[in-house]
Design goal:
The complex is a heterodimer of chains A (344) and B (174). With 344 residues, chain A is mainly α. Chain A is built from eleven helices and no strands. Chain B is an all-alpha fold and 174 residues long. The chains are: A mainly alpha (344), B mainly alpha (174). At the A-B interface, helix 5 and helix 6 of A face helix 2 and helix 3 of B.
């Protein structure tokens, strides 16, 4: 990175807009490179969990598998059932990808000064967390419209399940983060990371300590928000074929898949940002984005681990767990934190 | 940039508002309402009201409208007309619409048009930020804020009571 520093000093500073565009493109590109690798990572890891190899034929160690998959998906036919609504089936996967990519903009990868005179994030807005939730709530419509527009019973059931599930767990996930917002005194993700700077290898001020309850609720509700096992009821393959995406093929299905993996990565990085000190870590400052990704990697691993380990919940268990356990617990956490924030 | 966005969002808001009323299928009507709420959120953003825009999307477009979609997807068929033929509502509705239209016209012509040539009100730094809105809600607007939360609490309790009463009534029209 020293060469980049020299380059920045030698040439006159480019306008702020250009820097912002460049940062956005780099962040987008990095995320888009990681996401295909996540699919092969998950499949290989699932293989290991089940005492098999996983994909190992395409390229070295099967690393080219995502390319082969995408190549196959792109050339497959888009079919629309006679009862389906064609234009909505086209739009719904687009919404999924737009909503997933939109959330990347607020993720902070590094502070101002890490790589130059600019912060390593798309934007730093005062409503950071709400921005994240706003795009998260768009993701509903991708599943809901996709399932409804397919005009098939299984898709419809999947869509209705996803609507009920996502709306139930969004309440819990919002409340779980409120404790952190109150402690940091800001909703901006950059401010939240900066509030966690501490001694002890940069880990002294992490919110995982005081907000352990909030973190656990966030983690569980995060699994539910991304609709992954053990909360993958919208696409429970043993019950409703593939749920909302039953009738989707080709790259339309691929878009849902892409959105799901972006969401897994984003939720992992958000967990790191909010509870594990974001870019803080030992070593020089320019390591900031590396720390974010390394910490996020553990959560991605956790996502796969849980998927390989836990069985799917029953629907009524899912609902009563969300409303009767997570929600009261999150509310209690918020109240206790509020009292502590006022007292200290 | 802001001007272009304003006219795009305004056109989208008006177009979707018309679509809500004119579309026959209730499901598409709700979809138009969602787009309308998003267009309004963009207008809020242009007015420096970040928090309001985010709240609009999270609460209305993201949560309330999901319930609307839920209901229309389950029970609403395109073969059923949204408004039944005849009835008292059908005859008095135009009068109410006309009354609201006249009232809004007076308000807009009376106050809004004089502001067209000005550059808008001065706004302080941090205007519309969550911190500032929170402070206003807990100081200047405390009583209306508390009244609204009581209203919400009462409706929540009322919904539970109604749901309890209907439990087990299979023949009731649900």
């Amino acid at each position: 990175m020293t060469s980049a520093d020299v380059l920045l000093q030698a040439t006159p500073a480019p306008p702020a807009v250009l820097i912002q565009i460049a940062t956005s493109i780099v962040i987008f590109a990095v995320v888009m490179i990681i996401v295909p690798l996540l699919t092969v990572f998950e499949r290989k890891l699932l293989g290991r969990f089940q005492s098999r190899y996983g994909p190992n034929r395409v390229g070295p160690f099967g690393l080219m598998q995502p390319l082969a998959d995408v190549g196959k998906l792109v050339f497959k036919e888009h079919s629309t059932p006679s009862t389906g609504v064609g234009w909505l089936m086209t739009i719904a996967p687009m919404i999924a990808v737009i909503a997933a990519i939109g959330t990347i903009a607020v993720i902070p990868f590094g502070p101002v000064g890490a790589w130059g005179d600019f912060g390593l994030y798309g934007i730093d807005v005062s409503i950071g967390l709400l921005y994240f939730f706003a795009f998260g709530s768009f993701a509903f419509y991708a599943l809901l419209l996709g399932g409804w527009a397919s005009g098939s019973k299984y898709s419809f059931l999947g869509a209705m399940r996803s609507a009920a599930q996502l709306i139930s767990y969004e309440v819990a996930i919002g409340l779980s983060l409120l404790g952190v917002v109150m402690t940091a005194g800001s909703m901006s993700l950059v401010d939240i990371v900066e509030a966690q700077s501490g001694t002890w290898f940069g880990g002294g001020g992490w919110f995982i300590g005081p907000q352990i309850v909030g973190f656990l609720i966030f983690l569980i509700a995060g699994f539910a928000e991304t609709a992954r096992a053990p909360f993958d009821l919208p696409e429970a393959d043993a019950e409703i074929v593939a749920g909302y995406n039953t009738e989707f093929g080709g790259m339309r299905f691929g878009s849902y898949f892409l959105a799901e993996y972006i969401e897994v990565l984003v939720i992992s990085i958000i967990a790191v940002t909010i509870f594990f000190g974001g870019w803080h870590g030992p070593g020089p400052e320019w390591l900031a984005p590396i720390w974010v990704l390394v910490k996020a990697f553990f959560f991605v691993f956790l996502f796969v681990w849980v998927r390989a380990t836990l069985p799917r919940l029953r629907y009524d268990q899912l609902m009563s767990f969300g409303w009767k356990i997570l929600l009261p617990l999150a509310t209690l956490n918020v109240m206790v934190t509020a009292v502590l924030v006022v007292l200290t | 940039m802001a001007e272009v966005l304003f006219f795009l969002a305004a056109a989208l808001a008006i177009g979707t508002a018309l679509a809500i009323v004119l579309v026959q299928n209730p499901f598409y009507s709700v979809l138009a309402l969602i787009l309308n709420l998003i267009a309004l959120a963009i207008l809020f953003l242009l007015l420096n009201a970040e928090f309001l825009a985010a709240a609009q999307v999270v609460v209305y477009a993201g949560a309330v409208m999901v319930l609307y979609i839920f209901v229309t997807a389950y029970v609403g068929g395109s073969d059923q007309p949204v408004i039944p033929e005849g009835g008292v509502l059908r005859t008095i509705a135009p009068f109410f619409a006309a009354a609201i239209f006249i009232e809004l016209s007076i308000a807009i012509v009376g106050s809004g048009l004089t502001m067209l040539d000005s550059s808008g009100a001065e706004i302080s730094a941090g205007f519309g930020s969550p911190a500032q809105i929170g402070e206003l809600l807990l100081s200047r607007f405390l009583v209306p804020f508390e009244a609204a939360s009581y209203l919400l609490l009462i409706t929540a309790v009322g919904a539970i009571v109604l749901a309890q009463r209907r439990r087990g009534l299979e023949e009731a029209e649900l």
